[in-house]
Design brief:
Elements: H1 7-15, H2 19-31, H3 35-53, H4 59-72, H5 74-92, H6 94-104, H7 110-127, H8 129-146, H9 151-162, H10 172-178, H11 186-191, H12 204-224, H13 236-242, H14 259-265, H15 268-288, H16 294-309, H17 312-323, H18 327-345, H19 348-358, H20 365-377, H21 383-401, H22 405-419, H23 427-434, H24 438-462
Helix pairs in contact: 1-2, 2-24, 3-18, 4-18, 5-8, 5-16, 5-17, 6-8, 7-8, 7-9, 7-12, 8-9, 8-23, 9-12, 9-24, 12-24, 15-16, 19-20, 19-21, 20-21, 20-22, 21-22, 22-24
Length: about 475
């Protein structure tokens, strides 16, 4: 695995122009535990806060809410793991791998690497957050194999570019408010109207700051790259553990002409699944119009991966390789589900949201919604679950104050972009695929947190 930056190296970095960044990396390495251990610590903190500030906090309520949250999230957890696994299978396909290698060949310096990674990952994340995660991790690894670049810096850059995903086409908050009959369409339930994507994802107050974050952070990351003596490069053992093996995974040692071997290599199984999936999507989109949700995203990823991999056994092997990256997610999702349950069941989340709403005006409500969301996201790092908690409080406030409903809702979503840079929940699959310690990555993304916090808050306040 990638080696940690020596303390002497960090000290040298603090003496130079990149001292703040080197200091943050050093602090995160020394202070931040494994993400699973961190999630346990957050559970303790939330229990204490709920006991003190939760209006419905009793010991039986906390215990029941924790248990229900832990197991109610399992369906969602499997969906997230499948998005990661099916996205990995796409990126693992030979055609896509050749494309990644071809792009990586043009990144001959750290500056060119940043100029390549940021726009490519940002576009992928804007189209779909799962695709952005996978592309960012694998593209970073391919570049780092060819260029002497600090690997933690590069992975942190790809994760920073990914941060705009909640302002894109796969934003669960924007999509749910645009979807008639969606269970999380709180706007429609309150007003009878949906909020089209033109008022959220494509609105200037969302689109402009998302572009600014990518542009500004690209420039900042170029300046943040460690000096040559402090660079910790990519190491091959990380690639061997984190992703595709070099040997042909489809080779079979015995009876290559047996029925089992022929069935594994036959494209008929692939064709059957693709036909079923395409047929369902065509029928549904014809009858209900084009709509993307988590399940259809997984299905589309599955179909694309099957086509790119070709043979059923090739796809199965790709998923097996992807499964190596999901172990930490299997641990963390239930723990965060328990945190979510405690915050919801005891009323702690509503207390946080109401505190900000109480001091809001029609002009400032979206900004207060954004700031309260930034706090809640650190404890509930899931946009859909977060919206189910905060939405019922900020939307009635927007209606009562005659504030912008779309701006208030997207304030919640945009804060997800920001807080994800300090919350390691979504960074776990990225660093697992890349093969690097998360602590060094979060030292860099702390800078992204500060910059994007200012940009998004200013956009909500100033851009019409």
């Amino acid at each position: 695995m990638e080696q940690r930056q020596p303390l002497a190296s960090a000290a040298r970095g603090r003496d130079g122009g990149r001292g703040v960044v080197a200091g943050l990396v050093y602090v995160f390495e020394q202070v931040m535990p494994d993400p699973f251990v961190l999630s346990i610590g957050l559970t303790f903190v939330v229990c204490v806060l709920a006991a003190v500030f939760g209006p419905h906090a009793t010991l039986p309520t906390i215990l029941t809410a924790w248990y229900n949250g832990t197991f109610n999230i399992l369906g969602f957890a499997l969906q997230m793991i499948l998005i990661l696994a099916t996205g990995f299978a796409i990126a693992d396909a030979p055609l896509v791998q050749r494309g990644l290698r071809a792009m990586a060949a043009h990144a001959s310096t750290p500056t060119r690497a940043a100029l390549m990674v940021f726009p490519i990952v940002a576009v992928a994340a804007w189209l779909n957050w799962g695709l952005g995660l996978i592309v960012g991790a694998l593209l970073s690894r391919e570049i780092a194999k060819r260029v002497k670049v600090d690997f933690a810096w590069l992975v942190a850059g790809s994760y920073s570019a990914w941060s705009i995903c909640n302002s894109g086409l796969s934003s669960s908050i924007a999509l749910s408010q645009a979807s008639h009959g969606n269970a999380l369409n709180l706007v429609e339930k309150a007003t009878g109207h949906v909020v089209p994507l033109t008022d959220t994802v494509f609105a200037p107050f969302v689109f402009v700051p998302s572009v600014l974050v990518v542009v500004v952070m690209t420039a900042i990351f170029i300046r943040m790259h460690p000096k040559p003596d402090d660079v910790v490069p990519f190491s091959e053992p990380a690639a061997a553990e984190g992703g595709a093996a070099n040997a042909d995974p489809h080779a079979r040692g015995a009876a290559p002409t047996s029925f089992a071997a022929r069935a594994e290599r036959s494209v008929l199984g692939t064709l059957l699944l693709v036909a079923l999936g395409v047929g369902y999507l065509a029928m549904t989109w014809r009858d209900k119009g084009f709509e993307l949700d988590i399940n259809t995203t997984i299905l589309i990823f599955l179909l694309i991966g099957l086509v790119l991999q070709g043979r059923p056994i090739a796809y199965a092997d790709a998923i097996r390789r992807a499964a190596r990256q999901t172990g930490s997610m299997l641990l963390q999702y239930p723990v965060y589900g328990g945190i979510m349950g405690i915050m919801t069941g005891t009323g702690l989340a509503s207390t946080i949201a109401k505190t900000f709403v109480a001091i809001a005006t029609p002009a400032t409500l979206p900004v207060w919604s954004f700031l309260s969301s930034a706090i809640i996201t650190l404890l509930i790092p899931s946009a859909g679950g977060h919206w189910a908690v905060q939405g019922p409080f900020v939307l009635p406030a927007a209606l009562d104050l005659h504030a912008s409903v779309a701006r208030t809702a997207m304030g919640v979503a945009m804060a997800e972009n920001v807080s994800n840079m300090l919350q390691p929940f979504w960074a776990v699959p990225v660093v697992a695929i890349a093969g690097i310690r998360i602590q060094r990555v979060m030292g860099y993304t702390a800078i992204t947190f500060v910059v994007s916090l200012v940009i998004y808050a200013a956009a909500l306040w100033l851009i019409p």
